[in-house]
Structure formats: structure tokens, C-alpha cells
Specification:
The protein has 71 residues and is of the alpha/beta class. α2 links the parallel β1 and β2. The termini are close together. The longest helix is centred in the N-terminal third of the chain and has 10 residues. 23% of the residues lie in helices and 14% in strands.
Length: 71
């Protein structure tokens, strides 16, 4: 499901359980990322210990938006 950048911002501000995950490489993450997001490159996703143990935690995954209005 695609959500807009304002929707991401709203979720981050109003739901402390939300975890925002940037799936790009560390280099790309270091260059630009959403403040408060964590970096788990897609190639490391299965083995990442950064994922919440609680499987009901809302996750927002992002890489490159379709345009400047998406996240």
C-alpha cells in the first residue's frame, strides 16, 4: 500500500509504535533519510535484529518515492 509523505508524518507523530524503515543501502541512507527512521537494507531484511520482536508493530518501509509527494 502506498501512503503519502504527510500520512507518514502523521503516523510518526501520533503512533509511538510505528517504526519507519529505510530499505536502501547504508550509503544512500547516510545521504538522505527520514528523521527517526532506521536503516535495514533490503538484502539484510530477513536477518535483521533491528526489526521489532512484536509482530503487531506497524512498519513503514520506504526506499525512493515515486515523486516528492510519496514516501
Amino acid at each position: 500500500q502506498f501512503i503519502t509523505a504527510p500520512e507518514v508524518k502523521n503516523l510518526m507523530e501520533n503512533d509511538p509504535r510505528v517504526v519507519v524503515i529505510n530499505t536502501l543501502s547504508k550509503i544512500e541512507y547516510n545521504g538522505l533519510h527520514i528523521t527517526g527512521s532506521i536503516n535495514i537494507p533490503v538484502i539484510n531484511f530477513r536477518d535483521s535484529r533491528l526489526l521489532p520482536a512484536d509482530r503487531t508493530t506497524p512498519l513503514i518501509l520506504y526506499c525512493m518515492g515515486l515523486d516528492d509527494r510519496t514516501a
